[in-house]
Hints:
By secondary structure, the chain is of the alpha/beta class. Helices cover 39% and strands 18% of the residues. It has 9 helices and 6 strands. It has helices at residues 17-28, 36-47, 53-60, 69-80, 86-89, 103-112, 138-147, 167-170, 190-194, and strands at residues 2-6, 94-102, 117-121, 154-160, 177-181, 184-188. The relative contact order is 0.18.
Amino acid sequence: MTLDIYDFDKTLVPFDSGSKFTLYCFIRYPWCIIFTPVLAIGLILALLKIIDFTAFKKICFLYVTLIPLKKAVGRFWDKYEKCVFPWFKQRDKYSVIISASPDFLIEEISKRLEADKLICTRHNPKTGAIVGENCRYTEKVRRFYEEFDKNEVTVCDVYSDSLEHDEPIFSLATGRCYHIVNGKKIPFDYFEEYKK
């Protein structure tokens, strides 16, 4: 099987979906504001490197206990689905989206876009807490090979906005690597970029 890999946030859409969804919920469901002190303290601890990013993300979505989650996600993508970059809809190979974003948020848009496979950070939909590891950096590759047999899959092209954080998935490309900048696909050679 030959396939292409896509990051999601700032790759297929021009924003970080988790942050945008949080803001959307805090406006639409204002009682979520009671979680603001918790988020602020968590952010400070993460910036001071007292807790890691995964620990911070474990508290980021606790507010989902206070909202009708499925309805909120549906309305969110009703509003923002139009922001998906059109070139993704013109793909011609099996598509795998690999993202650190929460499953409860991007499963819906992945279905709407008819992506073939979604790999993302698992969350408990009742509490919002992360289940397992945050799907980022080398965890993306580990989760990819949890789903696909190394001997039966060939990764052709890889697309991501982050040269820093997505080097591990870029390393899987046998075709082209594409750095996404403001929705534009900028091709580059993996070895020229990372083996300088």
